[in-house]
Amino acid sequence: MAPRSAEASRKTKETDISVSVHVDGSGKSDIATGVGFFDHMLDQLSRHSLIDMTVRAKGDLHIDDHHTVEDTGIALGQALTNALGERRGIMRYASIDLAMDETLTRAAIDVSGRPFLVWNVSFSSPKIGTFDTELVREFFQALAQNAGITLHVTNHYGANNHHIAETCFKAVARALRAALEPDPRQPDAVPSTKGSLKG
Question: What local confidence, expressed as pLDDT, does residue 124 receive?
Answer without folding.
Answer: 98
